[in-house]
Known about the structure:
This protein is about 80% helix and about 0% strand. By secondary structure, the protein is mostly helical. The chain has two domains: about 1-95, Orthogonal Bundle (Tetracycline Repressor, domain 2); about 105-230, no CATH class. The protein is elongated, with a radius of gyration of 29 Å.
Amino acid sequence: MAYKEDVAGIDINFFHVIIGVMKNNQSKRPYQMSKRAESAAQTERRIFEATTALWHERPVAEITLEAIAERAGVSTRTIIRRYGSKEGLFETCIKKDSSNMETARDKAEEGDVEGAIHYLLTDYETHGDAMIRTLAVEDQLDIAHRVLQTGRSQHQQWCGRIFSSFLPDIKSVHYESELMAFVAATELYLWKLLRRDLEHSLEETQEIFMRLVNGLLLLNKTKNNIQNEK
Length: 230
């Protein structure tokens, strides 16, 4: 009987030890998961930052996974495991950029034309050259086409927001053409023509942008006055 009591005593003590270890592991698990999640987020951030930096430095076709990995301080295997390919990485960057990243132009307020042009040109000064390089290979690379299509869509939406008070009702048959006039007057190619091809200063470029936009505003105002007089 004494033998059985000793066995029972050992079993009970062992049970308490196991319970203690389990509780200790459970308390550590959230911390460990948090650290892993933080490390993964930092890795992703470094990869995105490296991709963006290289996009500003060289044509899309010349950006390799090896260059991105070296800049980000990770292995190419890490990038492939996360994104599958360079195209997959770029696509993820595009989605993240369009949903989370605030650009200078997003600070512009509806109806503030001068402020809007200022912020728009700030964006062009930062990203314009990279976008122009991407335009050069749009027909060759699907990823370049997707980057640019995203940019075109965002620019059109931005114009619709900034100039909404100067545009006809969205249901009007004239809405699309009048919106496109503002899109064309604030287009990236105009910035390239003035700043890169003709070497105008930023101040001169802003003045020209303002003249074009103000011309559209005056035209719209004149048309509205004529319609109201009828």
